[in-house]
Fold:
Amino acid sequence: MNLKTILTGATLALGVAVSAQANEVVKAGFIYVGVPGDGGWTYEHDQSRQAVEAYFGDEVETTYVESVPEGPDAERVMTQMALTGVDIIFTTSFGYMEATNNVAAKFPNVKFEHATGFMRNTPNVSTYSARFYEGRAVIGTIAGRMTKSNKIGYIGSFPIPEVIRGINSSYLSAKKVNPDVEMKVVWVYTWFDPAKEADAAQALIDDGVDVILQHTDSTAPLAKAADAGGVIGFGQASDMAAYAPAPRVSSIIDNWAPYYIQRVQDVMDGTWESTDTWDGISTGMVKIGDITDAVPADVKAEAMDLIAQMKAGTFSPFTGPINKQDGSVWLADGEVADDGTLAGMNFYVEGIVGDIPN
Amino acid sequence: MDLSSIDLVTLVAALMVASTPILLAAIGELVVEKSGVLNLGVEGMMITGAITGFMGAVATGSPVFGFLFAALSGAGMAFLFGFLTQYLLSNQVATGLALTLFGLGLSSMLGQGYQGVRPPSTPRLDIPVLSDIPVLGQMFFSHDLMVYLSLVLIVLVWALLKFTRAGLILRAVGESHDAAHALGFKVVRIRMLAIMFGGACAGLGGAYLSLVRVPQWADGMTAGAGWIALAIVVFASWKPVWILVGAYLFGGMTVLQLKLQVANIPVPVEYLSMAPFVITILVMVVVSALRGPGFVGAPAALTKVFHASN
Structure:
């Protein structure tokens, strides 16, 4: 027996000892794209992480790393986290897709949960997302009813299917209740940069927009709307209630807690499997925040009715007839979009002006 | 391409607001560098100013106090830097970087509980008569106090450096601290004052972000503005008026690309985002080519350590 085999044996024994210990307490790691204090996207993930801790108590240990850039650095952070003996890692941004799958291939015993992605290359990767577009339909309806200038602004982060879906959904719903409505889209190429989001909101307001929808994570656009006066907006990812009753007249809230608790439970029970979850209003993963009194009662009732229909599963925002931007038919009358097309959506619907950047 | 749909009035008005934070930070850093010190901690001082200004304004309900707190805390951070580099003779580059990291962490800690809080709004100060001029009035004379103050600062710094004895001494210290010392000037004391002035300006710039431009507090909200301010000092070849050009050019590009998108003009966003940086490099190349080889434009004693025993 040479030194190498002895060392290998020792390492193996150590490895067994470590994993035996890890079985007692499940360790869950979280990778955040922003900071828990953003008041939006990362805030809700962190709230749900705390919900996991509160639910399991001493049986679970959670850790997180904040402000992890989307790119090669994410791979380093995930690898480091996996090396510390974490059982399950939640990577909470679309841009972590490749990194998550690369690291998952190297650590077959660690479970990976990637938010809003679609790539599951190895059996230890799951993806999960929420049908935010259902919420967008509700706020799109309110936006269409509330706008006086008939100009709705939309602050987009990155031109990815997730964001494009939200733009299309809110536009279709706004158009349905207000045929004269026009949608102005501005791309800021960031998920979180309050100064940039504020500038984008200002540019839209200068152009006569009086309802601002946002797919970025900070409350800066709401702050700008409050400053301008006569402009309304919606909480994004989180309730952003500090700006209620106006300019924040409602919100789309992400509620990840039930999903996170379920997945950690699965790891404890040994029943964890690679899955693709896409839940919406019906399961409560997407919630609509309180609609304030700044919204007229009949508009509020209309929005509540829409929520009820989606809860019951009798309505989808993407129900035909819908044409694509170039005028070609996408969905025939009564046809409902399939998840595959929705997941890869890379086109505007008819009526939206402008091109999607590459 | 239909550029007429872009409203020049709101473009210029938005540009002035977007540029003010970097303008303030850059003019402060210019004075610091003119005295022969490089403080890379601008980002850290800015973000500290952003949170302390925000806290001050929320606590007192007055934005003026907020800006005052921000200037004081920025100067306080700068004092730390000055003490380490001027008295303990630590390396300026390393200390500056450390100050940035310290500021980011400190502001994040102080900012706990301030997310989502609404600050008191900073009133716009319409200059009488002038703000009533059509077009020009809304463009230039309907801003808040800090926008005017930043412009006044540029003029003051320019006049101070060019026409006054104090400016001459500051430049002498920055060009050759040994010569200045031999003439009997207190090199360290002068540099400390310049460093603290720079810190106060950076603090004001940060507070302008959190109290006017955004206006709210968020972790890491300066998002690199301090580094851009440092780059603009180089772009300006250490000349106050060019600081104004650089900052407004940068702010202008930022605002213009958003306006172009709103107006549906298909200019690739990437080029516009890149433009300020490309222009900075071009200007530096042109400037050094015009002035002949060996010209840098930087104060000769920049980053050099001074000790009276030398």
